[in-house]
Every structure is written in structure tokens, then in C-alpha cells.
Amino acid sequence: MAKIAVYKFGGASVKDADSIKNLAEIFRNRLRKNLIVVVSAMGKTTNALEEIIDLRLKSEDWYSKSSILEAFHLKVCDELFESEHPVFSRIKNWFIQLKLVVERPLTKENYDEFYDQVVSFGELIATTIVMEYLCNQGLIVLWQDARELIRTNSEFRFAKVDWERTRSACQLQLLPKLDLFPVLTQGFIGADHIGRTTTLGREGSDFTAAILAACLDAGSVTIWKDVPGVLNADPKRFPNATLFDELDYKQAAQMTFYGASVIHPKTIKPLANKSIPLYVKSFLNPEAKGTMIYGSGKQNPIPTLIVKEKQILVTFQMTDFSFVEEQHIHQVYRELDLLKLRVNLLQTSAIGISIVIDYQLFKLEKLVESLAKSFKVRYNEGLQLLTIINPDEDLIRDFSANYTIMLEQRTRTTFQLVGKPI
Prior knowledge:
Layout: E1 5-9, H1 17-27, E2 35-39, H2 45-57, H3 63-80, H4 87-102, H5 111-136, E3 142-144, H6 163-178, E4 183-186, E5 189-191, E6 197-199, H7 205-215, E7 220-225, E8 246-248, H8 249-257, H9 268-273, E9 278-282, E10 291-294, E11 304-318, H10 326-338, E12 343-348, E13 352-358, H11 363-371, E14 375-389, H12 393-400, E15 403-410, E16 414-421
Parallel strand pairs: 1-2, 1-7, 2-4, 3-4, 7-9, 8-10
Antiparallel strand pairs: 5-6, 9-10, 11-13, 11-14, 12-13, 14-16, 15-16
Helix pairs in contact: 2-3, 2-5, 3-4, 4-5, 6-7
Family: Belongs to the aspartokinase family.
EC number: 2.7.2.4
InterPro entries: AceGlu_kinase-like_sf, Asp/Glu/Uridylate_kinase, Asp_kinase, AsparK_Bifunc_asparK/hSer_DH
């Protein structure tokens, strides 16, 4: 039997009708049995769904935003299908279900669960359109609800995978189908033990591909992007970015940890554990080689630049002039863990602890409330975190000159600063 392959297509690859037509062309000579295709929400749909949640939370008019989003998807269908095609009624039905979910009660306390139930519609709608179009073109695929495969705990927005139950579901539900047809499913979403929709973290579709590959001992995973492969910097910020032909798992994992957006941070580990190679290729130039990530055992010395937006610098200062001890760091990390907040940078001094975290609605407020009795808490929002892996002194000097720096840190192989661009 041929080895299973997993393809993942992000929102940019299905952002409009022309993109979906391009997707079909990529599949002309590639679609086969034992192929799993993971697809994200179309374009900026997830952002639009987040705006709907925000309007609902403020008790403002979210219906108009929902109608605009529905009209966008139906317009894409107009450009892909004949007017009597059943896809139109299917998409309208998804939006009826979406509106029923948005009308449910929403508070700060149930925000994360509400969020997952709403944003999951982006992937469900996108895969419905893509599946129908591929079949319409004679490229037969089976549609699979990812929530029947990816089993998780109930930590909404950052759900942890129940690997044993997920592996069992993949073996029982996916393998028999893959022996007959390619299967199309959603990225980013799963379900807890009682069937409630969960998500794996923003941009988590890459992780979905890795989960399915690991559970089925796939031969490879290919992530299709709007860039030539993995570059040493974001080409939108740095036009002269250099393409990596290959990377070792460890170096790729390091890049994703610091915020390189080309691959989701959790993607590498399950693939490395099973020695499954990961290819990052361009859907705009599908015949190009791209980047291969595998256990090469070699470190590429090219400096890598990573910029993370919407960062918050939080400082916890001792209130009684005592020194920072291990117990104080544990206290801060306990609260961060409860709030599912990941630390992007940590620095301690004699009387303070400074951390850098991503912006998340309500989370900063809750963190400050929980620790205000033990520490004097100060914070700065709207910052950038710049990381340079394998830096040289010229790079550090040049980039430092472009920031008002609030905190910086150096190790043997990495330089980081937090601040505001000048």
C-alpha cells in the first residue's frame, strides 16, 4: 500500500474563486488514494468571525457582519458553480447554524468556549465549498468532519490533543476511506469528550496535518503557502529574505517557538517523533522545490529574523523590598498556566520578574487581578518582539537603532529585544 501523504492548504490558498480553481489545478496530477487534504478558513474569515464575537460581546449589531460574510462565500460559489448547484443551500444552512450559535449567551466566563463554537464555522464552510468544487471538476474527494477525528480536552482555544483517542479515531474512520478515495477535512478544530467543538490555537491547521500524519504513520506532510518555502525572514517585511532548501527539525522548531509564522509551533514535534519529513511549498509555483524539514542533524548558520506583533511586557515587582526567589517565579507561572498564556521572553532581576506575552482579550486583566496582592504590576501594550537567531554584531546594532528598547536579552545563539519601532 502506498504511504499516506498529508497536504495542508491555508486561508490564502482558498481566499477566493480563482484560488480554489488554482487548488484544483494543483490536484490534477496529485490527487490519489491515501491522501489527506487539510483546509483552513477562506482568506480573513477567522478574523471576521472574531469581529462578530466582539460585536456580540458589546451587544452591538453583529448581524450585518454575518450577512456580509455570508454574501462573500455565496459570491465565491457564484463564480464556481451553476446557480442550481446544491452547494448554495449547504452554505446558507451553515450560516443559519452560525447565527443560532452567536445568539447564545456570552460572558467573560464562557468567552473561550463561545469563541471555539463560532470560529470553527470558517473551516466547515471552506471545506464544503472546496469539496463540492473538486467533485464538480471530476476530482472526487470525501468530506470528513475533523471533530470526529481530533479528540481533545476541554481547554477551549488551546485544546490539548488526546493522542490515544485521536489515533483510534483516525485508524477506525480514516484508514478505510483512504483506501478508496482522498479525504478532505478541516484544520484547527477538534472536539472534547462530550462533543463540544474545540480549537488548537490560532493558525492551528498545520498542527492538524501533523496530528493526522503522526496517527497514521504518514510518509510526508506538505504545507502549501504563498511563499517559496521557509525563509530566514518574513518577505513582506524583508524583501531580500533567503530561502532555506532544508532545515533540521530542531532549528525549525526553534524558529516556530520564537514566532516564525510560516509553520505553527506545535507542528514539528509529532513529525520529528515519527521521522516524518515536512515540506513547505508554494501553491503559486507548485513545481518548485520549496523547503524540506527533516532530521538532517545540521544547523543552518544563516541569521534568521522574526518579528512578533501585539506583545505585552508585564513586570511584577516585589512590594516589600525582598528579593525575587524561585517561589515567586512559580507563583507567576501558575497563573499564566491557568490562563493558558505562553511566555515569549522571561527576565528576572533582584526585585522583579518581567515577561513578554501575546495579547489576548481579557487575559491581561485577569493576570493583573490574580497577582496584584503579591506584586506591584506594570505593563506596556502594543509592542514588538524582535528575535535574531544566529545574529552578528552588525545586525544587532542596525536593528537596535530602529527601536525604543524596553528590554533586551542575549544568549550564545539568539538576540531578542522588546520595544516600539522608531
